[in-house]
Amino acid sequence: MRNFRSYTILNAKAATGAGNSILVEDFRHIVLALDTATSANLTIKVQGSIYEDAPNFGAAQTAANQWDYIAIKDLEDGAAIEGDTGVAMSGSDDHRMFEVNVNGLKWLTVNVTARSAGSVTVIARLFND
Fold it and tell me: How many structural domains does the chain have?
């Protein structure tokens, strides 16, 4: 049996900002399920950190608040999505799934940026082989 956990990072979030931070250091794989509603027009970006304590993902990157945007892979077609670019939704709702490369990361979250409409829910499933 695989060792796994599921976490809700964003729950119908209808504003910009970071979601719940999750501790990922004990897991090798993460799959994110993203669901949007009410004609979502927003961008989500995955953020990660190797910092000992959870950083403030909503604040600027500094030596004392270390984090960066993380690339993800779309499980539909295998396309890589750059961390700085993120996933842009433009007025149509969707359900999508992504793999996150968490090698060496300690903390992870998802941040909503550039939102003008709609909401987003992101569930993370963490597991080992």
Answer: 1
